[in-house]
Amino acid sequence: MAVFIIVGCTFISAEITNTPPSAVITYPHSNAYYQEGSNIVIRVYSTDFGGTFPNGTVENVEFFVDDEKIYETSVHQDHTYTYIWEDVQAGEYRITARATDNDGDSFTSAGVILKVGEAPVIKKGISAGKGKYLGNVMGSSSVRADYLQLWNGVTAENAHKWGSIEGERDVMNWTTGDNIYNFAADNNLVFRYHAIAWGSQYPTWLEDLEPEEFQAEIEEYMAEMAARYPYMDQIDVLNENLYLNTYNGREHAAGTPYFRAGLGGPGETGYDWVIWLFEKAREYFPNSKLVMNDFELENNPDGINEMLDVVKVLRDRGLIDGFGTQAHTFNVDGFWNNPGLLRQRIDMMASSGVPVYVTELDLIGAPEASEANQLRSYQNIFPVYWEHPAVAGITLWGYVEGATWWTGSGIINADGTKRDALIWLEQYMRDQPDVGFPFDGEDMVNEENMVYNGEFNLGTSGWNVQNNAGASSSMEVVNDAGMSGYYALRICPDNAGTASWHIQIRQQTPILNGHSYTITFMAKADEIRNIDVAVQQDGQSFNTHFQQQVNLTTEPQEFTVSFTSSVADPIAALKFYLGGNSACVYIDNVSMMDVTDSSTSLPNMMNKEGNINVYPNPFSDKLFVDVADTSGSSYYEILNINGQVLVEGLINSHKTISTELLTAGIYFLRIMGGNELEIIKLIKN
Ligand SMILES: [Ca+2]
Ligand SMILES: [Ca+2]
Ligand SMILES: [Ca+2]
């Protein structure tokens, strides 16, 4: 029988003779948000294996809200115990789960903080409603406009590494880290902290410290983290600890020996220092899952076993909630032709008895990196992780090609065009059964609407404000404007300038030659005033394609304006001009639709001038495009007969387009460059 004596908040284990069961609330995540009246699915992962002592069985799992028991069950599917908490009223709640094993030993999970309120839930990320989170990393405080559309979890790429925070002893710099955490917290995303103890990118002054000082320093670091970040779902408490079974016989992280010595050494268990570290983490972070994270696992079963040996002593003491596998390209791309073996390796990780968190997945393709091989890797590897019942969620380590740490691992180009892997990943997610969690709610994206975040449900994401000629103003999202839905945009000029264009609220909306557009929006102001709505080139010669004044009152009004463009402009932007008047303006429910009659917009028009050559036609899994005589890149799209864009990207004189994902049928290739637009009809066999 395990005996835990609780002194303060520290567990001091007396003689242990049984491994307690695990209990990890995999859904909802900490800081999840629901609308009042929702039915909330609570999932608990619980096993009674993975420790030093013989495996047992989980007898039951109890669910608690603010320490009050609401449910109990012994029924599970693949170690997940589920309860649906119905009609939840507004408030903030702390959920825990307690598992009891066949020896009568119990373990209570880390807490999960839930927020329930009046505002609707907005779908976030391509995995919304699909049962697991799919997150990414943020390298800086600036957030791409497509982040919330693609991802629903966040890890700071570098900002939370100890060396970034405290390069100089006792001088902590949390600025970037705070911005990244706050973005996650404000949007109720899954937040993973990376990392507390890691023998790389740590402050080098640690190397000179005696254990007592070392421990005091890491406690200071944890205490500051705990004070700043109450809503972290997971923490990489120990990162890259492997050293016995590595590819070159060396420490995975060269500085790990300093941590090993500084935190108390191996001791009787072989891992006393790890136990000390996780005990402290439990104490400081009662509402976060404690994870051990490493790489070189999938392709190295000895490495998995070494990690399992450490996990065992933590499992005996109820100190670990997740097995983290980084899953980088160099360890997993090679499984593209053997997903069955990859599945076995994940099974090994799951024998830890705690959920598997995929923490840094990136794929470039094998045997060599290419867009086509990357697609193949995604198709063969991603589903093995995603569909494994022990995998609780996945974080990709970057997504913008050229900005990821590993060249070739990006799945979107900097200009927002999607690589084949992302086109596939979006479709894969759409094809997954909708289970209603997490992040399930109202659609934030209307595929027909060229405007992103026109309801301002995602804050100001996608929009920016430009002040010209000495004007100054700021935009914010408010929830009491009485406009469309819960949120609306408010812009209050501090210095309104003298002309309407001196203050501009903008979003890029590329337009096509000969196409007709309808713009609708709702607006009001604190006093009767005018604003302009315009579509203007946002750069180069700032050509105005359309501009019209509208008269605002203090009551919300809906406006509809239309125009037909006689040029193609890939850098056109929808703009609201608000300068020249200091009355605050409210804008909401903005849309811009291409309303061109598709029977005339997509003629069967071969390129007459002969400067665009597309072959073969009919095509199968590849399409080659040569564009002669261009002074820069052209933008291409492949559309189906309904006008939906299926593939898009840039062409610099020659491009090979992967078309294996397209089904047989008729397509249109639309090529846009300068003021030229070409549409070519093609057939896929
Ligand atoms: Ca047991
Ligand atoms: Ca310090
Ligand atoms: Ca709105």
TrEMBL record:
What GO MF annotations does this protein's record show?
Answer: endo-1,4-beta-xylanase activity
Source organism superkingdom: Bacteria
Name of the featured protein: endo-1,4-beta-xylanase
Asked whether the UniProt record includes Glycosyltransferase among its keywords, one would answer no
Q: Which organism is it from?
A: Alkalitalea saponilacus
Mind telling me which SMART domains this protein's record contains?
Answer: Glyco_10
Instruction: Give EC number(s), comma-separated.
Output: 3.2.1.8
InterPro entries from the UniProt entry: CenC_carb-bd (IPR003305), Galactose-bd-like_sf (IPR008979), GH (IPR017853), GH10 (IPR044846), GH10_dom (IPR001000), Ig-like_fold (IPR013783), Secre_tail (IPR026444)
Which GO BP annotation is one of this protein's? xylan catabolic process
Kindly indicate whether the keyword Transport belongs to this entry: no
Q: Which family does it belong to?
A: Belongs to the glycosyl hydrolase 10 (cellulase F) family.
**What Pfam families does this protein map onto?**
Big_7 (PF17957), CBM_4_9 (PF02018), Glyco_hydro_10 (PF00331), Por_Secre_tail (PF18962)
Catalyzed chemical reaction(s) = Endohydrolysis of (1->4)-beta-D-xylosidic linkages in xylans
Top enzyme category: hydrolase
Q: Which Gene3D superfamilies match?
A: Galactose-binding domain-like (2.60.120.260), Glycosidases (3.20.20.80), Immunoglobulins (2.60.40.10)
